[in-house]
């Protein structure tokens, strides 16, 4: 049964070219994305490009999309890198972007259920996976966690405009979802203080974990380990194949500076060496996966007390990107030496350009060396020549 309204840009072969020239932001009309020359995302794969520090510092806006009238509240990239999806709770919309063409693939509206988190299912089977490697494929699936019926997770076909499967088990709002790279399993946690492990082909959960506290979840890049980050300031690591045996590692992180913050998200770094915790008090925590010890405490960005700010790793795990309340993108170089005996890193650099509203959602797409960030506007950032102007967190001029 179709339950979403559909608005598909079927013939979008052209997109507005928005980019920076020196310090002037302008629109150069409509041209095909393949004709954008040096701004073409299709040519910017990691196989063809090694991202140096200067290239990261000089990333600028190549494209922007003004599809949402309310802020984007969730973002995800599929494993192939070919698509990025954003969800807006206010618009009750799901917008799918083609990263190769630099266009909007489709926009769907769930007026009945609303939209909370959105996550791709990794490529697995055609009826259950996100196979959006090119526009000729017939199936694309996204996990949609919706509101007000937020205790049910729905599997949505973006091309058939219908829900394929319903995953029921939670009795309160779902607040975190993580998917294995192969799409075979995914985790969910809710305000009911339960964490479920699901097989994507089965409607009922395979495993239930009760932690007696609010929890965020993440799965490592090899789908061997998953972590739960609980509101009691405890990190638990599980073997995904033997999670019923309980956690094989437990890290209690009740330091003084952590006690004042609420965790808003958790992620493994791509190389699995770090666990990143985002908070609502202006800090991003990086823990050593093997020991649970604090590796770095990232700060120096604008934030609003009690509000979630998203963050992500570069593909090689050497940099962390963060949104901010001032609309700018802040970046920390994890290879930069810190003061002896200190874990505090308060000197990020800032990308050229900004959002005009708070930026709270962003994801890095390593396939195209592409950073995607959203407020009400979704922006595609790509590397620029190394002689571009560089802003630092201490010399940013007010617009």
What does this structure look like?
With 399 residues, the protein is mainly beta. It has a single domain (5-392), classed as Methylamine Dehydrogenase, Chain H (7 Propeller), CATH 2.130.10. It is built from 2 helices and 33 strands. The chain has helices spanning 53-57, 256-259, and strands spanning 5-7, 15-21, 24-31, 60-65, 74-77, 83-88, 93-98, 103-109, 118-120, 141-145, 152-157, 162-168, 174-179, 185-190, 194-199, 207-210, 215-219, 225-230, 234-239, 249-252, 263-268, 274-279, 284-288, 294-298, 311-313, 319-322, 330-333, 344-345, 349-350, 361-365, 370-374, 378-382, 391-392. Strands 1-8-7-6-5 form a 5-stranded antiparallel sheet, with no helix packed on it. Strands 21-22-23-24-28 form a 5-stranded mixed sheet, with no helix packed on it. The protein has a 5-stranded antiparallel sheet with strand order 25-26-27-29-33, with no helix packed on it. A hairpin with a 5-residue loop joins strand 21 and strand 22 (274-279). It is globular. The termini are far apart. Mean pLDDT is 78; it is low at 1-48, 122-138 and 385-399. InterPro entries: Swd2/WDR82, WD40/YVTN_repeat-like_dom_sf, WD40_repeat_CS, WD40_repeat_dom_sf, WD40_rpt. One of its GO terms (molecular function) is chromatin binding.
Would you kindly provide a brief summary of this structure?
The chain has two helices and 33 strands. It has helices spanning 53-57, 256-259; strands at residues 5-7, 15-21, 24-31, 60-65, 74-77, 83-88, 93-98, 103-109, 118-120, 141-145, 152-157, 162-168, 174-179, 185-190, 194-199, 207-210, 215-219, 225-230, 234-239, 249-252, 263-268, 274-279, 284-288, 294-298, 311-313, 319-322, 330-333, 344-345, 349-350, 361-365, 370-374, 378-382, 391-392.
């Amino acid at each position: 049964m179709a339950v979403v309204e559909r608005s598909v840009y079927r013939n979008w072969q052209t997109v507005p070219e928005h980019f920076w020239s020196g310090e002037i932001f302008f629109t150069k009309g409509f041209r095909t994305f393949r004709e954008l020359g040096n701004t073409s995302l299709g040519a910017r794969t990691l196989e063809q490009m090694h991202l140096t520090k200067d290239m990261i510092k000089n990333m600028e806006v190549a494209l922007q999309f003004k599809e949402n009238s309310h802020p984007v509240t969730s973002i995800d990239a599929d494993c192939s890198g070919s698509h990025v999806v954003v969800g807006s709770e206010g618009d009750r919309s799901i917008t799918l972007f083609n990263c190769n063409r630099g266009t909007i693939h489709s926009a769907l509206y769930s007026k009945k259920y609303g939209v909370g988190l959105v996550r791709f299912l990794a490529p697995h089977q055609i009826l259950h996976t996100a196979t959006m490697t090119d526009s000729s494929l017939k199936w694309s699936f996204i996990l949609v966690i919706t509101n007000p019926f937020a205790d049910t997770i729905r599997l949505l076909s973006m091309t058939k405009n219908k829900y394929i499967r319903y995953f029921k088990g939670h009795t309160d709002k779902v607040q975190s979802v993580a998917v294995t790279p192969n799409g075979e399993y995914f985790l969910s946690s809710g305000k009911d203080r339960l964490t479920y492990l699901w097989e994507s082909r089965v409607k009922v959960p395979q495993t239930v974990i009760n932690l007696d506290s609010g929890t965020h979840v993440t799965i490592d890049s090899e789908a061997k380990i998953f972590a739960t980050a609980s509101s009691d300031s405890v990190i638990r690591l599980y073997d995904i194949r033997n999670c019923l045996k309980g956690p094989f590692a437990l890290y209690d992180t009740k330091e003084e500076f952590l006690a004042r913050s609420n965790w808003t998200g958790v992620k493994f770094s791509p190389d699995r060496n770090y666990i990143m915790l985002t908070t609502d008090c202006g800090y991003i925590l990086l823990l050593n996966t093997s020991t649970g010890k604090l590796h770095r405490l990232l700060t120096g960005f604008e934030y609003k007390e009690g509000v979630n700010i998203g963050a992500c790793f570069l593909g090689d795990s050497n940099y962390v990107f963060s949104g901010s309340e001032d609309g700018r993108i802040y970046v920390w170089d994890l290879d930069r030496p810190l003061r002896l005996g200190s874990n505090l890193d308060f000197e990020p650099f800032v990308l050229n350009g900004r959002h005009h509203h708070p930026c709270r959602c962003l994801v890095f797409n390593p396939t195209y060396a592409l950073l995607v960030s959203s407020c009400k506007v979704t922006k595609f950032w790509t590397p620029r020549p190394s002689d571009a102007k560089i802003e630092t967190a201490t010399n940013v001029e007010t617009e």
